[in-house]
Every structure is written in C-alpha cells, then in structure tokens.
C-alpha cells in the first residue's frame, strides 16, 4: 500500500516492487518499496548428506546413501533457488560419499594383496590349529586316515573355523585341516551307508547342501548334536563330475563346483569314498577361486592320500 503526498492511498502489484509508479490522483511519481524476501533456508537433504557421509564412512551403504541424498539436495535447491540454499553442503556430501566408498572398496579388495587378511587370520586362528605330530592324521574311531600336504597345514581342534565365508558349510565334520596363509581347507565327514544306494545318489545330496536351505537330515548321525543353523551359499555352479578308479576295493567319485560364499567365489573339489556297502566318506578340499591354482597341488595331494582303514 502506497500513500502519495496528495493524500491518495493505493495498492501496487507485486510485479512493480522496487519500481517507480505514478499516483492515480495527481500523477506524481512514487517509488514502490522493494519486495521483502523470506530468508533462505539450508537444504536438510544437503546437511543429511554430509552427516551420513561422515557417520557412515567405510560402510559403503552409508556413503552410497550420502551420495544419493546429496543429489536430491541439488535437485531441490535448483527448483527452489529463491527459498533454499546449501549447494556447497550438497557437493561436499557427494564428494565425501564418493571418496569414502572408493577407499572402502579399495581397502577390502587390497587387504589380501598386502597380506593384511592373512596376518589377521594367523593372529586369530593360530592358537586353534595344531601343526605338530606326524603329517598323516589317523582317525581310527572313524575308520580313515589322511596326510597333511605340508607342515604348514594344521588340524582345527574345534573342527570348525568360524570363517565368515565358508563357516556355514563346516558343520558336523569329523576332521578339518587348514592352511592359514593361503586360506585353504580340507575336511572329512563320515556318513552312514544307508539310505544311499550309490555314490551318484550321495553326490547329488551332498551338492544339494550348497543349493538351498534344506538340511540333509538323512546324512546326519542321529546321535550327533547339531545346533548350527544352515546358511546356504548364494550360488553354486557345477564344473564337472567323474568316477574315480577303484583302489584297494575303495570306490570313489569326484565333483568340482564353484560356490559364491560371502560375495566371493570359492573352488571346491569333493570326493566320495566307500568300501563295499559301508560308510560313505565325504572329503572336500577348497580355497578362494583367485588363489586356488596356487594351492591346488597341495589340495589334490591331500585328497590322493585319503584311505579307509581296514577293520
């Protein structure tokens, strides 16, 4: 509302704010007051982006969300430039999110390159592994023997490694050998003969252990405790299967599979042995796919050394 010196009062359109207008009564020029703009508000999306990038650093998920929030903030600011500010915060949050995401991914992938992963395993697992005694491990009560490939291989006392990648598949074992630096395993599990009529049927059931949440109740010793829940792998791919030549009356069968555990591929060689219609022995050797070729010779030597004891 403007008041002229002549006493006239009149309203001015918002579009004329700050401009010179004429009084409708005396035609004298008057200066319309400038429009009063509300104070700019910093985008909440931009602030959230920065905070989440800092609080969620090295979590990947948190930093990725920070990047998304920063982008949302930039779009919001562009649409409401007259009311919202905070471009600097939004860009800072996006940059932090990208930086911490890249650093986290590099750190996770490079851990084993610089020996950190191996060093941590040795620090946490050395006390649980027995590398003393003869290389051949004889399990008389279970009726088998197997030879450790080298002195670096040891026997896990608990028969389970609690490894985040393959620990879910190390339940109800009768023997577990591990080579810590190369993150390689050999394990043995003894199954009752019935109800399997052939090694082919047993192979199908053993491989099914990787493919789904179904637990193989028929493969367990009914007197053995099993409180561990089964956690299946994400994906399993069969690489091949073949019959092994019979040795000393011991029939055998071998299968090779690739299993994705904890987001990383592992290579398994699985052998099944049986003498007559007795127990079935499941012998597995496995290591991460990226280092499997380095340790394959040792794994196969362990498999070839396996023998069923005569009663």
What does this structure look like?
The protein has 311 residues and is an alpha+beta fold. The chain folds into three domains: 2-31, no CATH class; 43-110, no CATH class; 116-221 and 230-308, 3-Layer(aba) Sandwich (Protein Transport Mog1p, Chain A), CATH 3.40.1000. The protein contains six helices and 17 strands. It has helices spanning 44-55, 61-79, 87-110, 116-125, 199-211, 289-305, and strands at residues 2-3, 9-10, 20-22, 29-31, 41-42, 84-85, 129-130, 136-139, 144-147, 153-156, 175-179, 184-191, 235-247, 250-261, 264-275, 280-288, 307-308. The strands form five sheets. It has an eight-stranded antiparallel beta sheet, with helices on both faces. The protein has a three-stranded antiparallel beta sheet with strand order 8-9-17. Strand 13 (235-247) and strand 14 form a beta hairpin. It starts with a strand and ends with a strand. Residues 213-233 have low confidence and may be disordered.
Percentage beta strand: 25-35%
CATH architecture of the largest domain: 3-Layer(aba) Sandwich
- Total E-strand runs: 17
Task: Look at the helices and sheets and give the structural class.
Answer: alpha+beta
CATH class of the largest domain: Alpha Beta
- Count of helical segments? 6
Summarize the structure.
The protein has helices spanning 44-55, 61-79, 87-110, 116-125, 199-211, 289-305, and strands spanning 2-3, 9-10, 20-22, 29-31, 41-42, 84-85, 129-130, 136-139, 144-147, 153-156, 175-179, 184-191, 235-247, 250-261, 264-275, 280-288, 307-308.
Label this structure with key terms.
311 residues; alpha+beta; Protein Transport Mog1p, Chain A; 3 domains; eight-stranded antiparallel β-sheet; three-stranded antiparallel β-sheet; 6 helices; rod-shaped
């Amino acid at each position: 509302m403007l008041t002229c010196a002549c006493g006239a009062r009149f309203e001015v359109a918002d579009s004329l704010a700050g401009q010179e207008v004429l009084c409708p009564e005396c035609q004298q020029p008057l200066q319309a007051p400038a429009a009063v703009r509300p104070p700019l508000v910093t985008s909440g999306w931009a602030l959230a982006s920065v905070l989440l990038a800092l609080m969620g650093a090295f979590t990947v998920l948190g930093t990725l969300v920070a990047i998304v929030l920063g982008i949302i903030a930039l779009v919001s600011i562009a649409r409401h430039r007259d009311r919202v500010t905070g471009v600097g915060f939004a860009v800072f949050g996006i940059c932090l999110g990208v930086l911490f995401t890249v650093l986290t991914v590099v750190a996770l992938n490079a851990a084993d390159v610089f020996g950190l992963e191996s060093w941590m395993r040795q620090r946490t697992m050395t006390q649980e592994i027995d590398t003393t005694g003869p290389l051949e491990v004889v399990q008389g009560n279970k009726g088998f023997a197997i030879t450790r490939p080298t002195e670096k291989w040891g026997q896990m006392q608990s028969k389970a490694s609690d490894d985040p990648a393959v620990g879910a598949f190390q339940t109800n074992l009768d023997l577990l050998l591990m080579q810590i630096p190369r993150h390689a395993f050999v394990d043995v599990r003894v199954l009752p003969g019935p109800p399997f009529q052939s090694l082919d049927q047993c192979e199908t059931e053993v491989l099914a252990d990787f493919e789904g949440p179904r637990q193989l109740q028929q493969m367990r010793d009914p007197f053995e405790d099993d409180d561990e829940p089964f956690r299946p792998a994400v994906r399993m791919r069969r690489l091949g299967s073949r019959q092994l030549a019979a040795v000393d009356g011991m029939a055998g069968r071998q299968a090779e599979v690739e299993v994705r555990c904890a987001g990383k591929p592992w290579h398994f060689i699985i052998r099944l042995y049986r003498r007559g219609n007795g127990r079935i022995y499941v012998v597995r050797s496995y290591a991460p796919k990226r280092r499997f070729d380095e340790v394959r010779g040792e794994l196969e030597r362990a498999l070839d050394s396996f023998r069923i004891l005569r009663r």
